[in-house]
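User: Can you model how cytidine-5'-triphosphate sits in this protein?
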Amino acid sequence: MSVVALVPAAGRGVRLGLGRPKALVPVNGQSLLLRAVRGLLAAGCVQHVVVAAPPDQVDVVAAELAEVPDAHVVPGGAERTDSVRLALDSVERVAPDARVVLVHDAARAFTPASVVQDVVRAVEQGAPAVVPVLPVSDTVKKVDEAGNVVATVDRAELRAVQTPQGFTLDVLREAYAAADGVATDDAGLVERIGGTVHTVAGHPHALKITTAFDLAIAESVLAVDIP
Ligand code: CTP
Ligand code: MG
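Assistant: Here's the modeled complex, given as structure tokens:
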């Protein structure tokens, strides 16, 4: 039995604004995608990786990962959910012995190995779905269409959710089979079918590189600590 990680990397990186897919953006000479894939495999508990690439750049992404023999590349889709679904569809072919599946954003390229290990361990110990989370440090308010505050939400009950998210393969397949429309994360699809989603501690270094500010943080702090 093995663990397979699906890496959605088919986004266009519009908010980063560098005119290329975010996954291919280098940080200190190494692309976010290569860092993310190497990080998953280096955790020691993931045997296969399936990367969903921009459909018109499958060859470029495959070349980027040429030195990683356990990584496979498939064309992604229009939305993240489509990309994950396409990667999930390839698991039977790429990793027929997989029973645990992770879904991990290429954009969270600096996720520490300990987070990957904690998520896999929690699934192997019986949780059908697991997400890494952080406490929310900002005060959070609900606002109406006019921009007026409706309520202050009790932030003690809130968590910001990261990846990798971990699942038994059966549960993720069931969730995607039932999915209609787009979800902002994969565990949300498990919630919709009534599944329990367990949490483990996330890590600040697992931030999603979304904007130029995030990239500057990665260049100045993370890639220095994590070469
Ligand atoms: N993603 C994907 N397929 C899509 C859209 C997004 O595989 N059709 C991936 C991205 O490559 C990224 C992750 O999902 O690794 C999270 O998405 P996001 O941070 O929104 O990345 P982008 O869509 O590339 O960025 P933007 O929304 O700014 O264009
Ligand atoms: Mg996006």
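A couple of observations from the model: The radius of gyration is 17 Å. The CA atoms of residues 23 and 33 lie 5 Å apart.
User: Helpful, thanks.
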